[in-house]
Design goal:
Elements (H helix, E strand, L loop, with lengths): L4 E6 L8 H10 L3 E6 L9 H8 L15 H8 L2 E7 L1 H8 L6 H8 L4 E5 L3 H5 L1 H12 L3 E2 L3 E4 L5 E5 L3 H15 L6 E7 L3 E2 L5 E2 L6 H12 L3 E7 L9 E6 L2 H12 L4 E4 L6 E3 L17 E3 L3 H6 L6 E8 L4 H10 L4 E6 L10 E9 L5 E10 H16 L1
Helix pairs in contact: 1-8, 3-5, 4-7, 9-13
């Protein structure tokens, strides 16, 4: 296998023949390309053509070369996926997690950045169902190109034409550049919710699932960073390629963050850290009749404490409120010596445990002003990349 591997998926549209040129240009750029046609696409360009051009075996279903577990193997070795052309049907199947053939199975098993190049009749492209599927894919982090305007099959003219190869290659180059834009950068992420033990059974805690920090860690790793994730009380799994340190309490999290802060370039403090802990811990269970009150003592504000010693690090903080008080968010941005702060409204528990979020990104400027960027409801994966983009700008 080449050091830079691409899966080129071919949908069942007449534009499939144009992807022969795309395959050549990818090879010219130094990529090793494995072609996965959908079964219907072979009506337009045959298997022999793809094998001759790529110099590799071509299969279309999971029942071929079963001993390789081909969809899992290709998903692991490929650095990028390109689906060109992507028909309305193929886009719908990808958006809804279908696994009908080798291509859709491979995409489900892949964590690689994916470029989707639509080509279809203008009415099909404009259909609300297609636009909804495209929007869903973009929210999940897929790059979906806008098709060109021009003549299609027959005499029809409109938006839906397969883009010129040069435009596809240029868009792909942007993806590959971004995919490694954090190479050499050390990113420290905190996630989850701390627990402050009252006795061996009870604790003070919160509803944080750790999903947002998990998304940031994944995105940073995907973009080439060296990532350490300090994860508190979360059922989320350890990820290959990410150093995961599991903690329980705020004190434990502080110790881990403090020891690693000087070595990181970016810290994203997305964990929900308890503001206070019991002043005294009971080694044995406190009987119900004796549990009338709990004396509390304040925990360290982790991000504010370590950020005082920052040199060139970029600090991303989070503030979960029960209303979107932007002035309070700006106060916290300054008080915590943070460079970027994401403020969101968690009233009604709509954010905790969800794959989506919404709020406002507050970013400190050289002019001492604070930039506000409103974020409508998006996936936490998408927000992760937005915050890392901001951090990259701060790093220069």
């Amino acid at each position: 296998m080449s050091a830079r591997e691409v899966v080129l998926g071919i949908g069942g549209g007449i534009a499939a023949y144009k992807s022969c040129e795309l395959l050549r240009r990818l090879q010219d750029a130094g990529f090793g390309v494995t072609v996965i046609p959908t079964p219907s696409s072979l009506h337009f360009v045959g298997k022999a053509t793809w094998e001759a051009l790529s110099g590799r075996a071509v299969t279309t279903t999971v029942w071929e070369r079963v001993d390789e577990v081909r969809h899992v193997h290709l998903a692991k070795v490929s650095e990028f996926n390109i689906i060109a052309p992507a028909t309305a049907d193929l886009i719908a199947r990808i958006a809804h997690g279908r696994a009908d053939d080798l291509l859709t199975n491979t995409l489900l098993a892949s964590k690689a950045p994916t470029l989707i190049v639509p080509a279809m009749h203008p009415t099909m492209w404009a259909n609300k169902a297609t636009q909804s599927n495209v929007s869903l894919l973009r929210d999940r982090g897929y790059v979906v190109m806008e098709p060109d305007h021009g003549r299609l099959t027959g005499s029809d003219i409109g938006v839906g034409r397969f883009p010129e190869t040069s435009r596809i290659v240029a868009t792909f180059k942007e993806m590959t550049d971004k995919a490694n834009d954090l190479s050499g950068i050390k990113v420290l992420v905190t996630a989850g919710g701390t627990r402050e033990m009252i006795d061996p059974i009870r604790f003070i805690g919160n509803n944080s699932s750790g999903r947002q920090g998990f998304a940031i860690a994944k995105a940073a790793m995907r973009r080439g960073a060296e990532v350490t994730l300090v994860l508190a009380n979360s059922i989320l799994p350890d990820l290959p390629g990410i150093t995961t340190v599991r903690v329980t309490s705020a004190d434990q999290m502080f110790a881990e963050v403090h020891s690693r802060f000087a070595l990181c370039d970016v810290i994203a403090m997305s964990a929900a850290v308890a503001d206070a802990r019991p002043a005294q811990y009971s080694d044995s269970k406190i009987k119900k009749g004796s549990l009338s009150s709990i004396e509390l003592t304040a925990n360290k504000d982790i991000i504010a404490t370590v950020a005082k010693d920052k040199k060139n690090q970029v600090v991303i903080a989070f503030a979960a409120e029960t209303n979107l008080d932007i002035e309070e968010g700006e106060r916290k941005l300054l008080a915590k010596s943070a460079d970027i702060l994401f403020l969101n409204d968690v009233s009604g528990s709509e954010i905790f445990g969800s794959d989506e979020t919404q709020g406002v990104i507050l970013t400190s400027q050289v002019s001492q002003s604070i930039e506000r960027v409103m974020v409508d409801r998006i996936s936490k994966d998408t927000l992760a990349d937005l915050l890392l983009d901001q951090a990259l700008n701060k790093l220069g």
